Amino acid sequence: MDKNTNQSVLEVKARQLLTERGVDLEDIAELVYYLQAKYHDDLQMEDCRYNVDRVLTKREVQNAILTGIQLDVLAEKKMLEQPLQTTIETDESLYGLDEIIALSIVNVYGSIGFTNYGYIDKQKPGILERLNDKSTGEVHTFLDDIVGAIAAAASSRLAHASADDKLLDD
Ligand code: MG
Known about the structure:
- The chain is an all-alpha fold.
- It has one domain (9-163): YutG-like (Orthogonal Bundle).
- The chain has 9 helices and no strands.
- The protein has helices at 9-20, 25-36, 45-55, 59-76, 84-89, 97-106, 112-123, 127-131, 143-163.
- The model has no long low-confidence stretch (mean pLDDT 92).
């Protein structure tokens, strides 16, 4: 643990990788706002940020980030073996393991997350549109699903917390 922030090595690395790949906590908080604003009167961005931050403390989420981004980066550097290299580099639609990894994140906060994840994956608002832009030469086959899943999980967490009328601590 880092004694100043209480973050594990895994958590520090996961947060750093997201930043390096161009995704800020704020971008994910905006997705949560997009998903949840219609259900909560007076939803604040601060609540969205807080819930994203809490999701990022989960080991399952950190491992999904590390694994998915690693594969994206290796594909971007053309360092994977064929045929996996082409599958990931071109984001082949029948591959599906990017979505399976993302679902391991959504799972952490129960079933409401699935609906949110499906919805945001279809709409692709905000940062998701940029991550899906195939003209950049960057590979975000895993990251787009991971970011959508973190937003969906944070939305579930926020929904549960407001249903219980208190802030959850885990
Ligand atoms: Mg994908």
